[in-house]
Amino acid sequence: MVIDAEIFEKEGKILIKKRCPEDGDFEDLYWSDATSFYRFKEFEVDGTGVLNPMVGEREGCPYDCGLCAEHLTTTILANIDLTNRCNQRCPTCFANAAVANYVVEPAIEDIERMLRIPRNEKPVGCLAVQFAGGEPTLRNDLPDIIKMAKELGYSQIQVATNGVKFANDLNFVKKIRAAGLNTVYLQFDGLKEEVYHELRGYNALPVKLRAIENCRKGGIKSIVLVQTLAKGLNDDQIGPMIKFATSNTDVIRGINVQPISFSGRVDLDERQEKRITIPDFMQLVETQTDGAITKDDFYPVPFVLPISHLVERWHGEPGVEFTVHPHCGAATYIFVEGDHYIPITRFLDVEGLMELFEEEATHVHGLGGHLRTVKDLIEKIPQFVDREKSPIKVDIVKLIVNIIKEGSTAALAEFHSKSLFIGAMHFQDAYNFDLERVRRCGIHYVIPDGRVIPFCTYNTIHRDRLEKKFAKGVE
Predict the structure, then answer these.
(1) Could you say which of 140, 220, 256, 394 is the most buried, measured as most Cβ atoms within 10 Å of its Cβ?
(2) Domain range for residue 228?
(3) DSSP code for 303
(4) What angle do CA 416, 187, 157 make, to 5 degrees?
(5) Residue 61 has pLDDT above 90, yes or no
(6) Count of domains observed in the chain
(7) What b/e sequence results for 397-412 when a residue is b if at least 16 CB atoms lie within 10 Å of its CB, and e otherwise?
């Protein structure tokens, strides 16, 4: 059932309190720092949602997931679980992979149909897809699936993996790279052996390092390290991971931290002990980099919405708009010069730049408007750049202008090749579940019956029931 909740400040933190007629009142930590909560909230923007919803309204959010007309953000990243089989048995797994007595593995014909659904969303089709599981590399037809996604118009294709197959089979790495894979979303919890024993059940670190090396040998130049972050377990590993990533920028493009959520196989008795939120992550980054990267360098996802508006006006067609809830995630970019980290906010007035983009978006019409905008950008962007603090080898003005003019993944890829993304996305569980976040979610699961379901809703409410519905039985 849907119950009322109150989000309120108490002793400098933000809590969520729910009242259930059956189980009474209960509270959970929503956001551990009130100051950053209000700073992020300033960037809250509602999107238009999908103009061609896949399902009608019956029981209301979150039970009508499909997407329905109540949803406010189109699919930014489509998630497709290729299998629930896995070659690990992690104590912590929001997908509950490898423990069911049935197999969920859509046929390649079903996957093609599933891929078409987000591409056909209105007003704008999805351009990014992630193949997940279970462990997606257990599918022998993964190269064919990647190629199919590319042919259907996906420009960003990534695989969420534990890295075992990457570590053990260089030919496989070369094959999926040739098929069109863009990014490896690699489970990577830190650089200490004991972390992996706790989270993965064995010392997986050597596997991760071999996987990275094989990506290097196999021509994959975009790896994102994905850390499941648990308080008191691996919250001392963010600084070492940043250092490791900056030493391997030829292949590592980012770090994405996922504070542990209590769904799947996580002992709920540990909730209070291990709960960690996005402000905790930002503070850990500041502390473990000795202030080289501060919590104020981070912004919520919708902060970049003015870029979308300007690109849309420039190309005269709807574009992907990052209208997710401001408290779902946080990110920054850093540049590396020698042994120094240079956050983009150190040399670029990012808030002033976003205001400029929003202003320029109002008069991009026709050839004259385009020429004026290019002229304005070239003339005005330098006003927001501190040349003395800017990385020597980075022409930030050129990079930004190219992103606006080209509006392509190639332009974004050039920016990413010169920087390191550091971010966090906090997935919800039953204790901190907030429908306002769900309605603005941009990471969606596509399931075999044609529905598209927000990430947190799927894993918290729908996964078990729907997996059994589509199960093939024990193999």
Answers:
(1) 220
(2) 55-291+321-334+420-470
(3) G
(4) 50
(5) no
(6) 1
(7) bebbbbbbbebeeebb
Mean pLDDT rounded to a whole number for the chain: 91
The residues pairing with 453 across neighbouring beta strands, listed in sequence order, are 445
Residue 25 contacts by C-beta under 8 Å, 6 or more apart in sequence? 17, 18, 19
At 213-245, the pLDDT tens digits run 999 999 999 999 999 998 989 999 999 999 999
The mean pLDDT value for 136-157 works out to 98
Residue 110 within any structural domain of the chain: yes
Q: What is the pLDDT of residues 300-352, one digit of tens each?
A: 999 999 999 988 888 888 989 999 999 999 999 999 988 899 999 999 999 99
**Do 185 and 224 form a contact (C-beta atoms < 8 A)?**
yes
366-380 and 396-406 helices, crossing angle to 10°: 160
Residue-wise DSSP of 149-196 = HHHTT-SEEEEEE-SHHHHH-HHHHHHHHHHT--EEEEE---S-HHHH
Contact indicator for 20, 26 with CB cutoff of 8 Å? yes
pTM of the complete model beyond 0.90? yes
What's the mean pLDDT in 417-421? 89
Specify the DSSP element, H or E, that contains 326.
none
| Cα–Cα nearest to 445, from 51, 30, 62 | 62
Whether residue 215 contacts residue 173, with contact meaning beta carbons closer than 8 Å, is answered with yes
Report if residue 44 sits inside a domain: no
Band the pLDDT of 95: cuts 50, 70, 90.
low
Phi/psi for 21 (5° steps) reads -65, -20
Q: Is 395 part of a structural domain of the chain?
A: no
The pLDDT of residue 473: 59
Q: Where do we find the tokens 């600084």?
A: 239
> Can you tell me whether residue 147 is helix, strand or coil?
helix
Q: Count the Cβ atoms, other than its own, within 10 Å of residue 98.
A: 18
Q: How many angstroms separate the CA atoms of 137 and 219, rounded?
A: 17
Q: How many CA atoms lie within 13 A of 81 on its CB side?
A: 27
Main-chain dihedrals φ then ψ at residue 342, nearest 5 degrees? -120, 95
Which CATH number fits the domain that encloses residue 108? Answer: 3.20.20.70
Tell me what pLDDT residue 97 has: 60
- CA neighbours within 13 Å on the CB side: how many for 55? 19
What pLDDT does 475 receive? 47
Give the pLDDT confidence of 393-418 residue by residue, as tens digits: 888 888 888 877 776 567 677 777 78
Question: Alpha carbon of 121 to those of 48, 320, 396: distances in Å?
Answer: 12, 11, 33
Q: Is residue 406 one of the residues assigned to a domain?
A: no
248 in helix, strand or coil?
coil
Cβ of 437: how many Cβ atoms within 10 Å?
Answer: 21
